[in-house]
Amino acid sequence: xxxxxxxxxxxxxxxxxxxxxxxxxxxxxxxxxxxxxxxxxxxxxxxxxxxxxxxxxxxxxxxxxxxxxxxxxxxxxxxxxxxxxxxxxxxxxxxxxxxxxxxxxxxxxxxxxxxxxxxxxxxxxxxxxxxxxxxxxxxxxxxxxxxxxxxxxxxxxxxxxxxxxxxxxxxxxxxxxxxxxxxxxxxxxxxxxxxxxxxxxxxxxxxxxxxxxxxxxxxxxxxxx
Length: 225
What we know:
eight-stranded parallel β-sheet; about 40% helix; alpha/beta
């Protein structure tokens, strides 16, 4: 199926989820996760009107960047190895996976501008998931106060892979509550406005619970190879 047809269906689901939550669909940024598709498919997403692309590997991002350049806003959404920061630092607008001090130090050292970062939180506590614990989040953010090139623009999480709606809602609500706690600190370097949560299988629930960024791959651009 073409991306534009998938996009119409997803946009309708976004609208319906926002209506249920009493929100405007303008509050939700759709990120097309293009990590499993070709440059041509990523271009098709741009042609369909999608302005935000997400990648989780530096080599895949760089390959697409060589062709697409800065037409989309690039989001780095995967685990980022410290040694690979230099490869993507001047090409992305957002890093969704800040989860340790050594990574923050490298980002701050390599960046020549203020870069929007989201702290990845392992809300579910699953060992298979990356991110810091909910309890560690605020102490971690406070340690970043002197990093002049880092803006903590929000929080990101990956919910458990489950059909249990209540488990999903609890995960998303906990991240939203954590964001409010950060916002209440009124830290200039950490406005923490965004909640990056929700993927192909659970984005409607995430929106109902406050997501401002949803990361959709399979349901939007499919998979290739």
